[in-house]
Structure to design on (310 residues):
């Protein structure tokens, strides 16, 4: 990337980050999977520089387009709210698995196997509070048809639905958490998107299921893994994952507070667990054990033997 272009991109990111309540604490030149130049920006909360996240953009990213700027602004605004969580990259699956998402390499790169797809590599780790070694290396593949839906194959435009596709694939028992192993495929196709509704489609859920999900999220991400610190309940990524809206999640959170299971913060967006919720530890441990048994399939025996090409 030419220095002039790099400086322009850095200035644009700095302005957008500031508008979202973030600051750029550092930037560095990087490379994507194919060796093309990128810039890695270390973002932090303006009020707490210890809460950070990396934003990596390729030199092909056109930050000047109004639609791109608007969507990046939304992404950074959500990032600022996630950074207020005890851990911003921890998520829960519908089956009750608390996971951390790590080492995702942006942007997408073309498949080297000859397939007509774009890939992004990353890892998910089980976070059970016991130091579990279980994890999955994933290769999320986006078809050419699906790529036409995405404005750009860059982190701000794809991170959310990629994380949800990983969670959905695990819900289906098609990803296994192991101590060591090869990359496992996460196919991202148009089955995850409704063109007539112009929205993603992951999991149809009832109000009861959403209550169970948010209660489990507060139990794990705040009570067990977050030292009792508040977690964000109105995350649009969870709304997308549960095929619902942020407004519905707000109603669900209020219902849980009314049942005495969570303490809502003054802004009603974040919550901590009550003693009553933490009293369900045995139930959540059993659900985690059941989920781990469910995702231990035989489908990837070939992958264990090294017969994979991703």
């Amino acid at each position: 990337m030419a220095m002039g272009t790099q400086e322009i991109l850095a200035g644009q990111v700095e302005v957008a980050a500031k508008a979202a309540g973030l600051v750029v604490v550092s930037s560095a030149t990087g490379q994507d999977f194919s060796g093309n130049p990128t810039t890695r920006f270390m973002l932090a909360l303006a009020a707490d520089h210890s809460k950070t996240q990396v934003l990596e953009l390729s030199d092909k990213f056109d930050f000047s387009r109004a639609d791109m700027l608007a969507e990046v602004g939304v992404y950074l605004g959500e990032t600022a709210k996630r950074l207020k969580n005890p851990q911003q990259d921890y998520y829960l699956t519908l089956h009750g698995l608390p996971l951390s998402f790590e080492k995702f390499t942006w942007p997408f790169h073309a498949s080297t196997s000859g397939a007509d797809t774009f890939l992004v590599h990353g890892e998910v780790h089980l976070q059970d509070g016991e130091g579990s070694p279980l994890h999955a290396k994933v290769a999320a593949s986006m078809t050419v048809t699906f790529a036409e839906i995405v404005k750009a194959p860059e982190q701000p435009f794809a991170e959310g639905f990629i994380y949800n596709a990983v969670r959905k694939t695990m819900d289906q028992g098609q990803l296994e958490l192991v101590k060591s192993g090869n990359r496992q495929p996460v196919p991202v196709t148009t089955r995850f998107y409704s063109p007539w509704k112009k929205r993603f489609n992951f999991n149809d859920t009832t109000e009861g299921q959403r209550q169970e999900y948010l209660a489990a999220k507060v139990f794990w991400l705040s009570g067990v893994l977050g030292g009792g610190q508040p977690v964000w309940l109105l995350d649009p990524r969870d709304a997308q994952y549960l095929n619902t809206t942020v407004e519905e999640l707000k109603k669900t959170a209020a219902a849980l507070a009314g049942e005495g299971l969570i303490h809502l913060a003054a802004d009603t967006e974040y919550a901590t667990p009550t003693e009553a919720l933490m009293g369900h530890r045995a139930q959540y441990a059993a659900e985690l054990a059941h989920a781990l048994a469910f995702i231990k399939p035989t489908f990837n025996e070939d992958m264990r033997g090294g017969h994979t090409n991703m």
Observations:
- Residues 303-310 have pLDDT under 50 and may be disordered.
